[in-house]
């Protein structure tokens, strides 16, 4: 059995770790609230831009009459190479958040029979795919828990450039949908080529009379990249909230475990201390008895 | 009121501005200046980097610096989607001035790895902000 002093030292260590995980939990909780607010705040823009895009392409002749050179993002090609944009965290200590997203990505990739290239967002994703020898076209790191719109714009520009250069013919995004702090689900979507959203039923007729300033195809030229940015931004924001939620729960259970461990250690410390006292008393009593008998 | 319509500016970060009491919106589309009054026919426009003017039923006027984006007018409701937009009163004139000088210096230097397009955009944004400062008489 360990000595009282050793147990005491262990106890102190565990207690300190508990303090750290508690602090991390509180930081994650505070950030999570902000991330959720941001996710909510970004929704009107995303919805509206989707609506505008669907209005612009409401006339089917618009799409068929497009010059593919001018609208590289809308261009549909035979799929020979598939790109995966995997959104993960920069830091660990977020429970299974990163590994869940990566598992989802790997599952998708293993089903895909074409060549696969990766765009990584987040240090974990980058390291994972490089270590496993995937072809990583580019990576974007340093913002996973607080993405700004400009981060999404950078990724979108990067993805668009690779798509235009035919480094891939289709781009899937793998990210994590935030449901609650306790539950996040990894998901994947095709984001390139841009598929203009279909019109809602019932609204279709009234919209035929839009005035476009400038012409539809010129607006589309601006709108398609913006739409891509918005989709990526939404995914980043969802993933950030998921990361923080996951970190919060992970750190919360780590704190609980540390507390339990300290309790158990305290018990064995008390036992060890008491055992020491009893032993010393026995020795003293034994010594006294021995002295008495020798007299 | 018959002549008023709803107007909102939405950015990816937040709902920047909403009002039901707007009588006129003036802006610059990529194809030229445009103005919108109540009951305008449905329209979608792609915006240039330029000031956006907004008149209210009580006669007040508000300016916004809008850096690209889209405007949609539909069912007497006008929505501006901008990646970056700020109301006139938030503009920091000194900062805009500094940005303008910086962009001009970059363009004038003509170094080889200069991203001309980006510098020009920066210049345009700065000029837009300064123009709004002038329009509102802000120091």
Tell me the number of strands of chain A: 6
Q: Are there runs of chain B of 5+ residues with pLDDT below 50, and where?
A: none
Q: What portion of residues of chain A belong to β-strands?
A: 5-15%
Radius of gyration based on Cα positions of chain B: 16 Å
How far apart, in Å, are the first and last alpha carbons of chain B?
35 Å
Sheet of most strands of chain A: 5 strands, mixed
Radius of gyration of chain A from the CA trace? 29 Å
* Share in helix of chain A: 55-70%
Unreliable spans of chain A are none
The shape of chain B is elongated
H and E order of chain A: HHEHEHEHEEEH
How would you characterize the overall build of this protein?
The complex is a heterodimer of chains A (295) and B (139). Chain A contains six helices and six strands; from the N terminus they run ααβαβαβαβββα. By secondary structure, chain A is α/β, with parallel strands linked by helices. Chain A has a domain of 198 residues: ATP synthase, F1 complex, gamma subunit (Pyruvate Kinase, Chain: A, domain 1). Chain A has a five-stranded mixed sheet with strand order 3-2-1-4-5, with helices on both faces. In chain A, α1 packs antiparallel against α6 and α5 packs across α6. Chain A is elongated. The model of chain A has no long low-confidence stretch (mean pLDDT 84). The mean pLDDT of chain B is 82. By secondary structure, chain B is of the alpha+beta class. Chain B has a five-stranded mixed β-barrel with strand order 1-2-4-5-6. Chain B starts with a strand and ends with a helix. The longest helix of chain B is centred in the last third of the chain and has 21 residues. The radius of gyration of chain B is 16 Å and the shape is elongated. In chain B, β1 and β2 form a beta hairpin. In chain B, α1 packs antiparallel against α2. At the A-B interface, α1, α5, β6 and α6 of A face β4 and β5 of B. β6 of chain A pairs parallel with β4 of chain B.
């Amino acid at each position: 059995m360990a000595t009282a002093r050793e147990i005491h030292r262990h106890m102190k260590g565990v207690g300190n770790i508990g303090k750290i995980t508690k602090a991390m939990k509180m930081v994650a909780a505070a950030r999570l609230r902000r991330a959720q607010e941001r996710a909510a705040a970004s929704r009107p823009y995303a919805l509206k831009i989707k609506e505008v895009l669907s209005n612009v392409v409401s006339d089917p002749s618009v799409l068929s009459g497009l010059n593919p050179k001018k609208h590289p993002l809308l261009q549909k090609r035979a799929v020979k190479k598939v790109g995966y944009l995997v959104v993960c965290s920069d830091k660990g200590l977020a429970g299974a958040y990163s590994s869940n997203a990566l598992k989802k990505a790997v599952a998708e990739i293993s089903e895909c029979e074409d060549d696969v290239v990766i765009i990584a967002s987040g240090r974990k994703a980058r390291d994972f795919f490089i270590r496993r020898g995937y072809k990583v076209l580019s990576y974007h790191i340093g913002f996973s828990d607080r993405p700004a719109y400009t981060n999404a714009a950078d990724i979108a520009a990067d993805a668009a450039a690779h798509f235009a250069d035919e480094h891939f013919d289709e781009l899937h995004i793998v990210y994590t949908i935030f449901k609650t702090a306790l539950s996040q689900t990894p998901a994947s979507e095709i984001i390139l080529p841009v598929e203009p959203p279909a019109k809602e039923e019932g609204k279709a007729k009234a919209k035929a009379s839009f005035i476009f300033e400038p012409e539809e195809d010129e607006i589309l030229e601006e709108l398609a990249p913006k739409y891509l940015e918005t989709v990526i931004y939404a995914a980043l924001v969802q993933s950030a909230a998921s990361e923080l939620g996951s970190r919060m729960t992970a750190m919360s259970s780590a704190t609980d475990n540390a507390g339990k461990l300290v309790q158990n250690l305290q018990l064995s410390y008390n036992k060890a201390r008491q055992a020491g006292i009893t032993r010393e008393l026995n020795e003293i009593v034994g010594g006294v008895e021995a002295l008495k008998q020798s007299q | 009121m018959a002549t008023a319509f709803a107007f909102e500016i939405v950015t990816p970060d937040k709902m920047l501005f909403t009002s039901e009491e707007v009588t006129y919106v003036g802006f610059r589309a990529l194809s030229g200046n445009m103005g919108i009054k109540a009951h305008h026919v449905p329209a979608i426009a792609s915006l240039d980097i330029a000031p956006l003017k907004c008149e209210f039923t009580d006669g007040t006027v508000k300016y916004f610096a809008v850096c690209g984006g889209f405007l949609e007018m539909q069912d007497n409701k006008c929505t501006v989607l901008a990646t970056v937009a700020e109301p006139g009163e938030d503009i920091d004139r000194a900062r805009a001035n500094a940005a303008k000088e910086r962009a001009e210096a970059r363009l004038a230097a003509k170094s080889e790895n200069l991203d001309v397009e980006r510098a020009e955009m920066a210049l345009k944004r700065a000029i837009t902000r300064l123009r709004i400062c002038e329009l509102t008489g802000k120091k």
